[in-house]
Specification:
The chain is α/β, with parallel strands linked by helices and 188 residues long. It has helices spanning 11-19, 41-54, 84-94, 129-136, 165-169, 173-182, and strands spanning 3-6, 24-26, 62-73, 76-78, 98-109, 112-124, 158-162. Strand 1, helix 1 and strand 2 form a beta-alpha-beta unit. Bound molecules: thymidine-5'-triphosphate.
Length: 188
């Protein structure tokens, strides 16, 4: 049986895999996450998931999972906000509109590598300045693509989603479990 190795520092990815019944070991990846500005968002997520994979060593009998989540609006990619002003601009941009969240997952074993990307459309209510200010005083925006967390108070901004909710949180877990089985990982 194969050992699942999670190449991620994201506590959410670990929690989702464990919730789904995966035993895993952690091997965080510190790949360079710089992007060419013109790359489409779904391709950017796939590129970064593969970069994170390439940065890690793989032993025999291991399946390595790396992943990347980006938010996209008007063809621009929103990563994690650099500071308060950046986070404010992101939230103002998404206010009253629909954006896309892409999570790419790269699975790698000695037999080969497979990368797949899942998109979810998220529509926000129109946000007031007060709501945005209040949200920026929480610890939610800083480690998250687009500067919000749907699983926290950021969920209060959401009018509608189309697609997998868990994909927005950072891992489309139902699809991932199916793909992991194909790679020979046992799920309990
Ligand atoms: C939009 C959105 C993103 N996110 C998170 C998912 C990702 O963890 C994060 C985007 O950063 P990523 O670079 O995808 O992941 P990470 O830095 O957390 O972990 P690692 O690179 O080690 O795998 O934003 C939420 O938790 N909720 C949300 O609603």
């Amino acid at each position: 049986m194969k050992t699942l190795v999670l190449g991620s520092q994201s506590p959410r990815r670990k929690a989702l895999l464990e919730m789904a019944g995966c035993s895993l070991i952690l091997r965080p990846s510190y790949a360079d996450e710089t992007l060419e500005p013109s790359v489409p968002a779904d391709e950017a997520a796939a590129y970064l998931a593969e970069q994170k994979s390439t940065a890690l060593q793989l032993e025999r009998n291991e399946v390595l999972l790396t992943s990347d989540t980006v938010v996209s609006i008007d063809g621009d990619i929103l990563g994690k906000p650099a500071d308060r002003q950046d986070a404010r601009q992101m939230l103002e941009r998404m206010s009253g509109r629909t954006h896309q969240v892409y999570t790419a997952v790269c699975l790698r074993s000695e037999e080969g590598r497979r990368t797949f990307t899942t998109g979810t459309d998220v529509s926000f209510y129109t946000l007031t300045d007060e709501e945005i200010d209040h949200y920026l005083n929480t610890d939610e925006p800083w480690d998250k693509a687009g500067g919000y967390g749907i699983q926290g108070k950021g969920g209060l901004f959401v009018r509608e989603i189309k697609g997998d909710y868990y994909n927005v949180v950072g891992l489309p877990i139902a699809r991932v479990i199916r793909e992991l089985k194909e790679f020979g990982v046992s799920i309990h």
